[in-house]
Amino acid sequence: MQKIATVEGTKAVISKYPFAFQKKFGQNFLIDPHVLDKIIRAADITGEDCVIEIGPGIGCVTQALLEHAGKVISIEIDDQLIPILTEQFGAEPHFKLIHKDVLKVDLAKLIAEESPHKRVKVVANLPYYITTPIIMTLLENELPIESITVMVQKEVADRLSSKPSTKQYGAISVAVNYFSEPYLVANVPRNCFMPRPNVDSAVIKLTVHEEPPVKVNNVKQMFRIIKAAFLLRRKTLLNTLAAHGELGIDKEKLKELLDESGIGAQTRGETLSIEEFARLSDYIDEHR
Questions:
Q1: pLDDT reading at 24 higher than 70
Q2: Would you list the DSSP string of 50-80?
Q3: For the domain bounded by 219-287, which CATH number is listed?
Q4: Domain layout of the chain by residue ranges
Q5: H-helix segments, the chain
Q6: Percent of the chain topping pLDDT 90
Q7: What secondary structure letter does DSSP report for 27?
Q8: Which of residues 58 and 247 earns the better pLDDT score?
Q9: Contact of 191 with 199, CB cutoff 8 Å
């Protein structure tokens, strides 16, 4: 079979089928085999792995995954791509295609049924408009996933992998670091796709923690504090947590707790690490 992740391969597939690019699904197909090689190497795919691929498109990445993985489960929402994927890969015994919105798939049940004995990894060229909901669904649901290797908008990759006190650092950065270890694999210019998107992309790998890097008494409370801390980015923790109000603590008591915790009422949330957010959450939990 011709390599799909090339200009010629992609054009050949598109010309063979009655296909029209869907802007609403953010469809940009990879046409650079060198970038594809980087994705496969970064994901460290072996015959012992079951790979869940989100948004296979016309099969640019699927084709390479099937060459390396023990099993590939591709989840595609677009009706018009189902016959293309079925015709190209349906005869492969280790390929399964699911025609559904990934956010409506019971992934825990899917993994239990389809891959009870294999390591599970996620690989995806994610639609930019829905990147964060998909990543957080994969992480927050505590699925038995070893790693998530995804192509995303470069700006998003920078946020996911950013450190405290940087411009890109935000609530999503803290959340991703709580659940995983992010690693920026490669920057990918827009000319590596068909059609060409308006922004550059990047491949990022999230290696899921077996245990979170911090222990915290009340995880939900910690994430409420994290979310509130970045709502008013340039404000102090005292002002932004008081304005948010979800902790149910008056401003005077909140100032006392922030200062006594060692974090400080005048500190900005964008400077705090996941460890400091955990320490603050526990202190508030114990002394409110």
A1: no
A2: EEEEE--TTTHHHHHHHHH-SEEEEEE--GG
A3: 1.10.8.100
A4: 7-208, 219-287
A5: 7-16, 33-43, 60-68, 82-89, 107-114, 131-140, 154-160, 171-179, 219-229, 237-244, 251-260, 274-287
A6: 85
A7: -
A8: 58
A9: no
71 forms beta bridges with 50
Please state the φ and ψ torsions of residue 205, each to the nearest 5 degrees: -115, 130
Helix (H, G, I), strand (E, B) or coil at 144: coil
The residue with greater pLDDT, 218 or 245, is 218
116 and 86 in contact (C-beta within 8 Å)? Answer: no
- 3 state SS of 201: strand
Taking only the tens place, the pLDDT of each residue in 201-212 is 999 999 999 999
N-term to C-term CA, the chain: 65
**What φ, ψ does residue 98 adopt, rounded to 5°?**
-120, 120
Q: What angle do CA 43, 188, 2 make, to 5 degrees?
A: 70
Q: Mean pLDDT throughout 247-275?
A: 95
Confidence of residue 82 (pLDDT cuts 50, 70, 90): very high
Structure token pair of residue 252 = 């005077």
Predicted pLDDT of residue 193 = 95
Q: Which amino acid is at 148?
A: I
Rounded distance between C-alpha atoms, residue 28 and residue 98, angstroms? 20
- At position 88, the amino acid (one-letter code) is Q
**What is the residue whose two structure tokens read 């598109």?**
14
Answer CATH for 7-208 from 1.10.230.10, 3.40.50.150, 3.10.25.10, 3.40.50.300: 3.40.50.150
Percent share of the chain, pLDDT over 70: 98
Residue whose entry in the numeric block shows the structure tokens 């590939």: 72
With beta carbons less than 8 A apart as the criterion, state whether 263 and 287 touch: no
pLDDT at 1 over 80: no
